[in-house]
Amino acid sequence: MENIKENDIQQVNEIKETENIEEASEKKENILGTEKIGKLLIKFSIPCIISLLVSSLYNIVDQVFIGQGVGYLGNAATNIVFPLTVISMAFSFLIGDGAAANLSLCLGKKDEKSASKGVGNSIVLVAILSIIFLAVSLIFQDSLLKLFGVTPDSYQFAKGYMFYITLGLPFFMLTNALNSIIRADGSPKYAMASMLAGAIINLILDPIAIFILHWGVEGAAIATIIGQIVSGIISLYYLKKFKSIKLNKESMKFDWKISKTVLLLGISSFITEISVTIVIIVLNQLLVKYGAESKYGSDIPLSALGIVMKVNQIVNSIVLGIAVGAQPILGFNYGAKKYNRVIKTLKKTIIVAVIITTIGTLVMQLCPQLIINLFGQENELYNEFAQKCFRIFLMLIILNSFQIISGIFMQSIGKSIKSAVISLSRQIGFLIPSLLIWSSLKGVEGVLYAGPTADALAFIMAFILMFFEIKKMKKLKQE
After folding, report:
1. Distant-in-sequence, close-in-space partners of 438: CB < 8 Å, separation ≥ 6
2. Which residues span the domain enclosing 344?
3. In sequence order, which residues have a C-beta less than 8 Å from that of residue 100 and are 6 or more positions away?
4. Residues whose CB is less than 8 angstroms from the CB of residue 236 and which lie 6 or more positions away in sequence, other chains included
5. How confident is the model at residue 443 (pLDDT cuts 50, 70, 90)?
6. Is pTM, for the whole model, over 0.85?
7. How far is CA 148 from CA 79, 84, 143, in A?
8. How far is Cα of residue 268 from the mean position of the Cα atoms in its chain?
9. Which tens digit of pLDDT belongs to each residue from 209-242?
10. pLDDT at residue 357 above 90?
C-alpha cells in the first residue's frame, strides 16, 4: 500500500576520496544542472524501485510460503500483524526520508554543515526510537493483537508470528532509515544491495523453516528477521563511507533546530505510512464484524483482502520508487531555482507512473485468480471473495499513482504541509469515511467499494493542489 526517496548525486561515487568537499559539491551541481532528466531518472529510480520492491517482498514471500504450507489462517495471522511493520516503517521514514530530503536541499544550497548534522541527528533518533518501539511491542503484545483485529481461530498463529517479528524491529527500522540516507548520499546501488541481501536470505530460509523444519508461521518470521539483521549490518557499515558529507561526533550531537527540520520534511512519509496503519486496523475490524454476518466468515476476508493489499503494494513500490528517484532532482533544482528542470522532471515522472499503474490495473482485473493461486489453493468461497477484492478494491489505482507522485513532489520542494495534506487525504480523509459508509450499506462487500471511492476523491484533491503549485512555479520561472 503505500512508503518512502533518494538524492541525485550518483557521480559523487566517481570522485576520488582525496578530493575536497568543494570539488565534490561542484561536481554534483554540474550533474544535477546539466544531465538529461530521463537519464537521471533511469539511473536513480531503478535502484530505488528494486530496494522498495525488495522491502515489499519480505511480506509477500512470507505469505506465499505460509499460504502453501499453513493455509489461509496463517496468512490471516500475518495480515493481522502487518500494522506493526507499517508503524515501525512510518517512524523509519519520518526520520530517514526527512534526512534525505534535508540533505538534497542543503547540498543544492551548498550548506554542507546542516546536511551533515541532519544525517547525524537522524541516525541517533532512529536508534533510540527503535529500542523504545521494541519494548512497547513486547509489553503490549496481546493488546496490539486485539486492536489489529485478531480472531479466535488466528490468535495462536498471530501471537507466534508477532513475537519474532518484534525482535527484528530495531534492524528493520535502522535499515529503512539508513537506506534513505544512503541513497541521498549518492549510493543507491549500495542501498539496493543491502535490501537485496536480506531478501535473498529470507527467500532461502522461508521454505527451509516451513517445509523442512515445520516451524510454521514462526519459522517464516525467524527467516524474515535474519534477513533484516543482515540488511541492517550492511547499512550500518556505510557510516564509514559517506561521500558528500563529513560525518563525525559533532554531527551526532543533538540539535533541535536541525532535527525539527528533518522531522518536518519527513512528515509526509510518516503520515502516509501511519495512515495506512489506521486504515488496516479499521479494515480488519470491519472485515471481522461484517464478515461474521456473511457466508464468508471473518477469516476469509481478513486473509484475502490482506493479500490483495500487499500485491497492490508491489505496484505502489514501483510508483514510489520512480517518485523517490525523482526526489533529489526535484529538490536540488528547486533549491538552485532551476524551475524548468523541476517541471520537466515532474511531467516525466507522472507519465511513467501512469503507464505502470495502467499495466497493474489490467493484470489485476483480467487474471486475479492466477495471482490468488500463488498464495495457496483454497476453497471456492475464498477464491470468490479474493477475486472481488482485486476487481473492486483496486479498480482505480491508476488515479492513486498521481497522488503518490504529488505527495513526494511537495516533500521534495520543501512544502511539507501540502505534502502532508495530500498524503493524508486518501487514507484518513476519504478512505476511512468511505469504509464506514459503504460497509453499513452493503456489509463486507461494501468494504471493497471504499477503495475506488477514496482513490477518485484523493485524485481530485491532489490535482487541485498541484495545479496551483505548478502555476506558482511557472510564475517564479518567468520572474
Report:
1. 446, 447, 448, 449, 450, 453
2. 10-478
3. 5, 6, 7, 180, 181, 183, 184, 327
4. 174, 178
5. very high
6. no
7. 9, 9, 9
8. 11
9. 999 999 989 999 999 999 999 999 999 999 888 8
10. yes
Q: 166 vs 87, 173, 221, CA distance in Å? A: 12, 11, 9
Minimal CA–CA distance to 26: which of 9, 43, 41? Answer: 9
> What pLDDT is recorded for position 307?
86
C-alpha cell of 366? Answer: 483480467
Residues in the chain: 479
What Rg, from alpha-carbon coordinates, does the chain have?
Answer: 22
pLDDT at 444 over 60: yes
Task: Read off the DSSP letter of residue 444.
Answer: G
- Cell digits for 114? 546542516
Please indicate, yes or no, if residue 5 is contained in any of the structural domains. Answer: no
Q: Cell 519459522 belongs to which residue?
A: 219
Please give the full DSSP string across 25-51, using - where no structure is assigned: HHHHHHHHHHS-HHHHHHHHHHHHHHH
Q: Quick check: is 141 in a domain?
A: yes
Q: Is 253 left (phi over 0), alpha (psi -120 to 50) or beta?
A: beta
Write the pLDDT tens digit of every residue in 16-63: 332 333 343 444 444 656 678 888 888 878 888 887 787 777 668 778
- SS3 state at 7: coil
- Total domain count, the chain: 1
- Residue 412 CB partners (closer than 8 Å, separation 6+): 101, 104, 326, 327, 328, 330, 331, 334
The answer to whether residue 145 sits within a structural domain is: yes
231 HSE (CA, 13 A, CB side): 35
Environment class of residue 387 by beta-carbon count within 10 Å: exposed (0-12), middle (13-18) or buried (19+)?
A: middle
User: Which three cell numbers mark 292?
Assistant: 461474521
Q: Does residue 271 carry a pLDDT above 60?
A: yes
**Measured between alpha carbons, how far is 396 from 3 in angstroms, rounded to an integer?**
19
Residue 106 falls inside a structural domain: yes
